[in-house]
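User: Can you help me understand a structure? I only have the sequence.
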Amino acid sequence: MKKRVLIPLLATGHGLNDLVAGYFLGQMLWMKLETPEIALGLFVYNLLAFGGQYPAALWIEQKKKPGQFIRAAMVMNGIAVLVFTQIHTLALVLAGVASAIYHVAGGAVCSRNNRAGSIGLFAAPGVAGLVAGGWLAHEQINIYLILAAAVLLFLVLLQFTSIPEREPVTATSDSKQKHGLDNHDILMIVLLVVISLRSVIWNVLQLTHENDYTRLPAIAGSAFVGKIAGGWIADRSGWRLYVDISFLRPHHY
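Assistant: Let's start by predicting it. Here is the structure, written out as tokens:
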């Protein structure tokens, strides 16, 4: 399979990965579970899917074979789909671990050319899949067989796809003598704080418009287009200008 197909394929897998997660989390509301059990399930998934990304990154960086991790993540998603109706806790754990691994491994592959457009394309289907899964679960549409078939098809396509390995990073004398924070570390901390603040804003908006599901397609669509357009613009305008504009724009809803 040609290299130009690799990133769209991984982006499709990202959408499928988040579709599974969104469907699981939405289905929990219809499983006659107690509120604490639902809250625990959400906490476990989020802890693994998001908190697990850094450990996953260290592991993937050590092994230098993101393709194997991408395949393993999708296998875990497939198993999760098969067992969710019987052992939903196990399914959530598998989906959470799979999500952490897929996001990091897929992102590592898409960032090899150091272009924001590739990363934006990879990231775009995620929120669309998450919203679609949640909506399908809310409407009580059974898609377990469709999900299982989609995961199987994706795994088959991966078998015919060449995924490049990560190149080992060689330590330099400067890096060995590094102590404390450098400009890159400070920039990353600032960006993480910005991301956290924007997440707080979204959480407030979600609580304000609780049970108003008519806005979900608009949110998914705007995020999908915004990530692709954002990557394209960042490649042409430069990272600094794009980040400044993104952070300073008004947050109206």
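Now, to help you interpret it: The mean pLDDT is 80. The CA atoms of residues 234 and 243 lie 8 Å apart. Let me know which part you'd like to focus on.
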